[in-house]
Amino acid sequence: MDNLKSPIYVTKPSLPELQDFFPYLEQIWKTKILTNNGPFHKQLEKELADFLGVPYISLFANGTLALVTALQVFGISGEVITTPYSFVATSHSLLWNNIKPVFVDVEPEFCNLDPEKIEAVITSNTTAIMPVHVYGNPCKVERIEEIAKKYGLKVIYDAAHAFGVDYKGKNICNYGNISILSFHATKVFNTMEGGAIICHKANTKKQIDFLKNFGFAGETTIMACGINSKMNEMQAALGLLQLKNYNTNNEKRREIDHLYRQNLKGIKGISLLAKPENTVSNYAYFPIFVDEKEYGISRDALYEKLKTKGIYGRRYFYPLISEFSMYESYDSANPAKLIHAKKTSQEVICLPIYPDLDSKEVDYIFRCISDFRIHSSV
Ligand code: T4K
């Protein structure tokens, strides 16, 4: 490995100073309140709602369980239109609810569900649309809302990548009927594991809170077959500290995004996503797309070569969800109908981006990508 002390992974979780966490732990040890809507949990729900500018937030043990519950609270069933270009948790949440995923292609600009392809697959069994704000870039929310209204469908946004993203002056989670966030270690705001549902009405939050606590609606009443997906007090306490550092970390990510854009734009065969308009970004991911003909070697060859230099990008999202064996037999998994998703999935590498990544490391990554192009056969 040239010039590198340790490998560079796609991300490195941010953590607060350890000594700042001790007082929170002391309080947990003193009060013995470990979980079940404790004081840190309540405080984090309030602080996050204020920070993000959203009406109601319910914390979860992780984003996947938040997705599963978001579908349950609206009684979604039958078929749900979704994207194959996502992490598999998106579609798994449908299967966990006995719902059939119907895959629709993505638009090439931001790799999000293409609204113009939705109407063609709506049937009498369709109850909802589940788009994903991939890499934190907003979906075409206005068009999706228009279609949903026309057909009486719910819109459940998988906003796992979109913590802190604003679109047209408001938090992206204010769009649609409900949104979920992930606070996994690899996300821009992490509670080690964690997640949340954002909704618009007090009564919806109440139902969600029942569902994440086995369905208990009081000591002796069960309202539905809920699950245990509560966030515990250690996670919530960590979240309170992480929130204080979010803006500083976001600024560091913005600088890295800027550096990458400046450096990489001149490399033939490497393309980047545009900066989304009317958006306050969270710079969660930095995807590049490799055109084999122009760049000279394939995406996979570049991915492997980068590893030999200690750079561990990730092919988010390859393979497509629709290509996993448990999904490939669905009609909508037909690759002929998922042209853009397939192409994107074959060309993408997400480069490392995290607050501690310094400009020398960014430069090193850029030089490697540039050198591999020069030494290619074209
Ligand atoms: N919807 C969408 C659109 C999602 O992307 C996700 C999750 C979900 C829903 C579900 O949310 P959660 O239930 O996870 O809250 C990761 C994450 O596990 C997953 O949360 C995430 N999306 C997905 C896109 O990526 P892997 O398998 O790539 O992660 P892993 O463990 O290989 O980590 C990547 C790199 O990060 C490592 O090479 C090193 C670094 N790392 C990772 C962890 C976990 C650390 O330095 N420390 C760590 O603790 O899936």
Please count the helical segments. 11
Q: What's the CATH topology label of the largest domain?
A: Aspartate Aminotransferase, domain 2
What is the end-to-end distance?
A: 25 Å
Radius of gyration: 21 Å
Q: Output the structural class.
A: alpha/beta
Largest sheet: 7 strands, mixed
| Strand arrangement across the biggest beta sheet | 2-10-9-6-5-3-4
Your description of this structure?
With 378 residues, this protein is of the alpha/beta class. The chain folds into two domains: 225 residues, Type I PLP-dependent aspartate aminotransferase-like (Major domain) (Aspartate Aminotransferase, domain 2), CATH 3.40.640; 129 residues, Aspartate Aminotransferase, domain 1, CATH 3.90.1150. The chain contains eleven helices and 15 strands. The strands form four sheets. A seven-stranded mixed β-sheet has the order 2-10-9-6-5-3-4, sandwiched between helices. A three-stranded antiparallel β-sheet has the order 8-7-12, with no helix packed on it. Strands 11-13-15 form a three-stranded antiparallel β-sheet. Helix 2 runs parallel beside helix 7. The longest helix has 32 residues. The relative contact order is 0.17. The site of ligand T4K has 24 residues, from helix 3 and helix 4.
